[in-house]
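[recover] target loaded
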C-alpha cells in the first residue's frame, strides 16, 4: 500500500515539474524577450521588470511567499507542499532557463502572444490536475473555486485585466502592447478552461433495450453509475419495456457503449451532453451559504448567551 502511495506521489510531482517547465518556458521563450506583459503573478513580475529592471525570479518568489501563507492556511498542508514545490521550480526555471539562450525567432508579436498563452495554459492545467499551483493568482483562483462555482479562467481574467492594463502607464509602452498582453491572456484562459472543464464533462445516455435488466446491473456493477428505469412503450411494435437513463463522465462513454452492445447488439442508444451535473459521484454545489449560516448561528448563540 505504501509503495503504491509513494509511486502515485512520485508521478504527481513529476507532472508538476513538467507542467511548470512548460509554463516557465513559455515566458522565457515567447513572452519576456518580446516584452509581452501576460497575466498572473509572472505577468506582474514581468511588468515590474520592464519598469524597474528588477529580475522576474526575485519578484515572483517574494510575492509568492506571502500568498503561500494564506493558501496553506485555507487549503491545508497538502496544498502548501505541492505549491511550494511548484514555486521553487518556477523560480529556478525563470532564473536558469534564460541561460540556455533559447529565444523565439518569430518576429510577429501576435504569434508569440498566442503561442505563449497556449503553452502556459497547458502547463498550468497539468499543474492544476496534479493538485498543485504555480502560486500567485493561481492560489486566488483555487481558493475562490473551493467556495464558489466559478471557473479558474474567470478569476484569472479579472486579475489579468488589471495587471496587463497597467502596462499602459510604463514609459515607451502603447495600447498595442496592452492588446498583445490581452491576446496572451485570452489564449491562456481558453486553454485552461478547455482542459479543466473537459476533464469534468458529463453525458446523459438513454438506452432502449429488451435486456434492460442485464444492462442496468452491468452499469451499476462495472461502472459504478446509477441507472434510472422508466416505463416505456415502442409505438411501432406496441411492446412495453424500460427506458434506462444513465449520467456518466464523458471519458466513460465509449466503454459503456461497448459494454451495452456486448449485452444487446440491437440496443438503441442516444447520447447528449450534460452540463452542471451535481450530486454523488459528480460535482458539489459551492454556494458558500452553509458557511454563512454557521456564522449567523454562532452570532445568535453569542447574543443569546
Amino acid at each position: 500500500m505504501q509503495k503504491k502511495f509513494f509511486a502515485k506521489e512520485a508521478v504527481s510531482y513529476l507532472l508538476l515539474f513538467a507542467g511548470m517547465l512548460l509554463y516557465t518556458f513559455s515566458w522565457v521563450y515567447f513572452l519576456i524577450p518580446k516584452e509581452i506583459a501576460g497575466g498572473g503573478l509572472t505577468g506582474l513580475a514581468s511588468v515590474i521588470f520592464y519598469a524597474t529592471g528588477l529580475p522576474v525570479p526575485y519578484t515572483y518568489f517574494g510575492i509568492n511567499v506571502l500568498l503561500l501563507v494564506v493558501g496553506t492556511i485555507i487549503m491545508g498542508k497538502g496544498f502548501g507542499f505541492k505549491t511550494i514545490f511548484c514555486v521553487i521550480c518556477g523560480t529556478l526555471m525563470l532564473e536558469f532557463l534564460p541561460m540556455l539562450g533559447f529565444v523565439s525567432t518569430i518576429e510577429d508579436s501576435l504569434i508569440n502572444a498566442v503561442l505563449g498563452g497556449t503553452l502556459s495554459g497547458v502547463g498550468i492545467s497539468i499543474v492544476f490536475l496534479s493538485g498543485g499551483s504555480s502560486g500567485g493568482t493561481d492560489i486566488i483562483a483555487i481558493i475562490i473555486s473551493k467556495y464558489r462555482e466559478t471557473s479558474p479562467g474567470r478569476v484569472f481574467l479579472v486579475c489579468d485585466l488589471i495587471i496587463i492594463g497597467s502596462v499602459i502607464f510604463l514609459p515607451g509602452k502603447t495600447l498595442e502592447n496592452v492588446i498583445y498582453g490581452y491576446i496572451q491572456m485570452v489564449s491562456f484562459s481558453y486553454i485552461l478552461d478547455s482542459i479543466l472543464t473537459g476533464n469534468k464533462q458529463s453525458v446523459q445516455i438513454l438506452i432502449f433495450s429488451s435486456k434492460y435488466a442485464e444492462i442496468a446491473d452491468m452499469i451499476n456493477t462495472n461502472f459504478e453509475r446509477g441507472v434510472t428505469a422508466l416505463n416505456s412503450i415502442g409505438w411501432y411494435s406496441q411492446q412495453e419495456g424500460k427506458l434506462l437513463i444513465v449520467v456518466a463522465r464523458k471519458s466513460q462513454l465509449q466503454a459503456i457503449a461497448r459494454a451495452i452492445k456486448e449485452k444487446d447488439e440491437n440496443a438503441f442508444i442516444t447520447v447528449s451532453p450534460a452540463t452542471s451535473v451535481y450530486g454523488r459521484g459528480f460535482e458539489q454545489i459551492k454556494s458558500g451559504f452553509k458557511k454563512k449560516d454557521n456564522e449567523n448561528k454562532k452570532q445568535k448563540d453569542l447574543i443569546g448567551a
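[recover] notes: Strands lie at 202-208, 227-234, 239-249, 268-274.
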